[in-house]
Write a structure and sequence with these properties.
Blueprint lengths: L6 E7 L3 E8 L15 E7 L1 H10 L5 E7 L1 H14 L3 E7 L5 E8 L4 E6 L8 H14 L4 E8 L10 H12 L7 E4 L1 H9 L2 H4 L6 E5 L8 H7 L11 H15 L5 E6 L2 E7 L24 E6 L7 H16 L4 H12 L8 E6 L7 H5 L15 H4 L16
Parallel strand pairs: 1-4, 1-8, 2-6, 4-5, 8-9, 9-10, 10-11
Antiparallel strand pairs: 2-3, 6-7, 11-12, 12-13, 13-14
């Protein structure tokens, strides 16, 4: 490593939120329609990237966070991060639009949480976007990366290829070897995977996708949407739907080797490109329009994540990156991360390799003629199409029916 260089976990999180939490203790708790007095008031950093950076900072010594912040709320967010995590270097680009606030109302009587979001008035200007890109180039020069993560929504005003631009900026000056790359954003994943990998020198980088299932986060439904699969066409069982989506993404992106998904309280799953395809050409992109190419098996992890919400998913993501960056295989790293967040007791996580056999439920409907989805079509480079749906949440359509 050159003099002055450092090994850092770099997180790009452009969807920053100032989290304001109000706790209401029993016996009154929180009563809608009444005057409520909170017993505890706290401020913290919210947003996928910010939560991941905070979780990483508790496990790793050097974390860099690229973010967009503005106004007094943005300053409060930065102060909260710096106060709790001195080892996070904030690479902040300041905007005229103030950072959006999110209010969490916790009723301790029942453990119920109510989330209230301010109206989204964020509008990033062209000058602010250019400043962001320049900041990334300058701040990552001569930096040896331990991992790279792209998390969160795409704020209004940013071009749909901003994540591709930022990746180019990072790779201009940083030292990228076989570095874990986590893509936890619909917009970020689509832009990064549609960008020429050779020009970004990402061919040697392992790509990983984690899809948490909670409000304001990527969930299993977003994975289906990223794969351009209509949920109304997908088979009812979520694992079958995810298997179809994984096969499609492996097909469209030959350099994407792993896809992981958590979906609420259901068992987390992990898909491996090595188990994609059949016979000759296994593990490679199949010809457009070809049938029968599928995921033949996948890993199912029997684990009960204590907190499937934002904070729990951030801890799981951070534990995974730390284990993965240490040289462990992705399946082992994922299992180790799950063991860590599930309490660390022996037997709290059990990994099962599920053989899909010859049963491709719903596959012909999706790839066949008569209105099925064309698997040869690339993702549409439309910024609005790549923005997460406001109500994606944790809605597993059809699950309650079963």
């Amino acid at each position: 490593m050159a003099a002055g260089a450092s090994s850092s976990h770099l997180v790009i999180g452009l969807g920053a939120l100032l989290q304001r939490s109000l706790t209401f203790a029993p016996p009154q708790g929180f009563q809608p329609g009444a005057v409520n007095t909170a017993t505890v008031a706290e401020q913290s950093a919210g947003g996928q990237g910010q939560e991941l950076a905070a979780a990483l900072a508790s496990l790793c010594s050097d974390v860099k966070l690229v973010q967009l912040v503005g106004g007094k709320s943005g300053q409060a967010l930065c102060d909260a991060l710096s106060l709790r995590h001195a080892n996070i270097e904030l690479l902040s680009t300041w905007t005229e639009s103030p950072t959006r606030a999110r209010y969490m109302l916790l009723d301790q009587r029942w453990g119920e949480r109510t989330t209230v979001l301010e109206p989204d008035s964020t509008q990033i200007s062209g000058a602010e976007q250019a400043s962001l890109a320049q900041q990334v180039v300058q701040s990552t020069a001569d930096t040896e990366l331990a991992s790279l993560s792209i998390m969160g929504d795409l704020p209004a005003g940013l071009s749909h290829d901003i994540y591709g631009q930022l990746l180019e900026g990072v790779l201009q000056g940083s030292k990228m070897g076989d570095v874990p790359v986590m893509l936890g954003s619909v917009a970020g994943a689509a832009a990064a995977l549609n960008t020429g990998h050779d020009s970004l020198r990402i061919a040697a980088v392992r790509l990983f996708r984690l899809y948490p299932c909670s409000d304001h986060k990527m969930d299993a439904s977003d994975l289906l949407r990223l794969a351009n699969i209509d949920e109304t066409l997908a088979c009812t069982w979520m694992e079958d739907s995810l298997r179809i989506a994984a096969a499609r993404l492996f097909r469209l992106y030959p350099r994407l080797p792993w896809i992981a998904a958590t979906h609420g309280m259901l068992p987390p799953v992990l898909f491996d490109r090595e188990r994609y395809g059949e016979g000759e050409g296994k593990g490679e992109a199949a010809p457009a329009g070809a049938k029968g190419t599928r995921v033949s098996a996948f890993y199912r992890y029997h684990a009960r994540i204590p907190d499937p919400g934002a904070a729990g998913v951030a801890r799981l993501s951070a534990a995974l990156l730390a284990a993965w960056a240490s040289g462990r295989s992705v399946p082992d790293a994922f299992e180790a991360a799950l063991v860590g967040v599930c309490g660390g007791e022996e037997g709290c996580v059990r990994c099962e390799l599920v053989d899909c056999g010859g049963d491709d439920k719903g596959w012909d409907t999706l790839v066949g003629g008569g209105g099925g989805v064309s698997l040869g079509a690339p993702l549409l480079p439309d910024a609005e199409k790549m923005r997460p749906a406001q109500s994606s949440g944790s809605d597993d359509k059809g699950w309650d029916t079963l």
